[in-house]
Specification:
The chain is mostly helical. The chain has two domains: about 180 residues, MFS general substrate transporter like domains (Growth Hormone, Chain: A); about 200 residues, MFS general substrate transporter like domains (Growth Hormone, Chain: A, Up-down Bundle), CATH 1.20.1250.20. It has 20 helices and two strands. A two-stranded antiparallel sheet has the order 1-2. A hairpin with a 5-residue loop joins strand 1 and strand 2. Helix 2 packs across helix 9 and helix 4 packs antiparallel against helix 19. Keywords: Membrane, Transmembrane, Transmembrane helix. This is MOT6 protein. It is a multi-pass membrane protein. InterPro entries: MFS, MFS_dom, MFS_trans_sf, Proton-linked_MCT. It is found in: Membrane.
Length: about 500
């Protein structure tokens, strides 16, 4: 009896041990396959442009749609995870990504590529990535922070390997056969999803979706015990209430209106995103245009990935020091500022040795931006509303990621000068960094003046930037629907 009870308890709590580490390995591979994949798109830029006789602006819509859908599909993914579980959504994402890239190999126009590689493959990558990160919250409690940090190394590995593999396959087989092979590679997301089996509770029921919201069951019971056919006005009111609850859960507009810190940070990051992706899309074509060999040009993106492998964990550890408690927003702004200023190196010279130096500095700044992006959001927003705040944050982020490269491509088409790519990127990044740093500084001074004058506030924590403790959670607490991820 005692032996059977101990075995049941061990089976009921698989967190932080055993199969959880296999799930972590699958999450590392997933992040490399999904978030790392857009890094290789620049390798195909020139070939796609010649194949479809498209302008820079038209060609840049392809990676823009892919990245925008990858980041903006988070709320839809959360709904599917709650309904079907993480395992199903990861495998669905892998299937969509594979189908999208296989279909892309048969495209006859740039518009078809927008649909297949941009929307379908991007949505599949979103499902696999988001659900793969979410499942870590179920398998890890004590080591959750470590698990997420280790999983994010998959992004850096993807940044390093995808461009090298893409250039090799492009030289050997052409872009159509390469996209066909990519469809097979991305199908491995389904294998990773199969590893992520649902966590079993003591009762035997699978824990594969977040805990039910309080009142939802009661509401359902109340409706079932009521009249068999409610009044049409009551039905309409109930639908409106449910719709509002869904919006409140996944798109927290109330937080945006009331929390000044979240408001400033969201505006600053979305403005930054217009210029954030430009170097990744246009660096390879810029280097090729200035006489750099294609294989060496593809190596530039891999250098950025290698720097990320080492710099991202170090910056993450540095930002966790108590010296930066309450000051992480300024460290983030400094990283964004360095990101923007580094673009001037490309403008000065396009020699391969100079571009290597540029990639090292850019990779370091990008590591700081990626390591701190969601951590600062956790500092600004209460953790019980982090999931909904992240939903609105990623959708606004994806909109600006979508419009940045095509608008810059249009400018390049008009001027015939790739240097405007880096001018644009610097402008948006530097202005966003200064806006966030000075705005938070002014907000802190305003809050200090209010405290000094003892002006009463109805809820001061909602209006000021402060640290929100997130590291200690009881093992009995259910993991959040969306956990701390590094998506850049």
């Amino acid at each position: 009896m005692s032996r059977g009870g101990a075995a049941a308890r061990q089976a009921a709590k698989p967190q932080d041990q055993g199969w959880a580490w296999m799930v972590l390995l699958a999450a590392v591979l997933l992040q490399g396959l999904t978030l790392g994949f857009p890094s290789c798109v620049g390798v195909f830029f020139t070939d796609l442009q010649h194949e479809f006789q498209a302008s820079n602006s038209e060609t840049s819509w392809f990676p823009s749609i892919m990245v925008a859908v990858l980041h903006g599909g988070g709320p839809l993914c959360s709904i599917l995870v709650e309904r079907f579980g993480c395992r199903f959504v990861v495998m669905l994402g892998g299937l969509l990504s594979s189908v999208g890239m296989v279909a892309s190999s048969f495209c006859r126009s740039i518009g078809q590529l927008y649909l297949t590689a941009g929307f379908i493959a991007g949505l599949g990558s979103c499902f696999s990535f988001q659900a793969g990160v979410t499942v870590l919250g179920y398998y890890f409690v004590r080591w959750r922070t470590l698990a997420n940090a280790m999983a994010s190394t998959g992004v850096s590995l993807g940044f390093t390997l995808w461009p090298l593999l893409s250039q090799y396959l492009l030289d050997e087989m052409g872009w159509r056969n390469t996209f066909l092979i990519f469809g097979g590679i991305l199908l491995n997301c389904c294998v990773c999803g199969a590893i992520m089996r649902p966590v079993q509770l003591a009762s035997g029921s699978p824990l594969q979706s977040p805990a039910e919201e309080p009142g939802r069951t009661a509401e359902g019971t109340q409706l079932s015990n009521g009249a068999s056919s409610p009044h049409p006005k009551l039905q309409q009111q109930t639908r409106r209430t449910k719709c509002f609850q869904v919006l409140q859960k996944y798109l927290a507009f109330d937080i945006f209106c009331q929390n000044k810190g979240y408001q400033i940070y969201t505006i600053g990051v979305t403005w930054m995103m217009i210029g954030f992706a430009l170097p990744h899309v246009y660096l390879v074509p810029y280097a090729i245009q200035n006489g750099v060999e294609e294989r060496r040009a593809a190596l530039l993106i891999s250098v950025i990935g290698i720097i990320n492998i080492f710099a991202r964990p170090l910056i993450g550890l540095l930002s966790g020091h108590r010296v930066f408690t309450g000051r992480r927003i300024y460290l983030f702004s400094l990283a964004v500022l360095l990101y923007g200023l580094s673009n001037f190196i490309c403008i000065i010279s396009a020699e391969f040795s100079v571009l290597i130096v540029y990639c090292i500095i850019l990779g370091t700044a990008m590591s700081g931006t990626g390591a701190l992006l969601f951590q600062v959001l956790m500092d600004v927003v209460e953790m019980d509303r982090f999931s909904s705040a992240l939903g609105l944050f990623t959708i606004l982020e994806s909109i600006f990621l979508l419009i940045g490269p095509p608008l810059t491509g249009l400018l390049v088409d008009i001027t015939r000068d790739f240097r405007y790519v880096f001018y644009n990127s610097s402008f948006f990044l530097v202005s966003a960094a200064l806006f966030m740093a000075f705005s938070f500084c002014a907000l802190e001074k305003k809050n200090k003046l209010k405290e000094a004058s003892k002006v009463p506030l109805d809820d001061p924590s909602r209006y000021q930037y402060n640290e929100t403790p997130t590291e200690r959670q009881s093992e009995s607490q259910s993991p959040p629907a969306v956990v701390y991820v590094t998506s850049i």
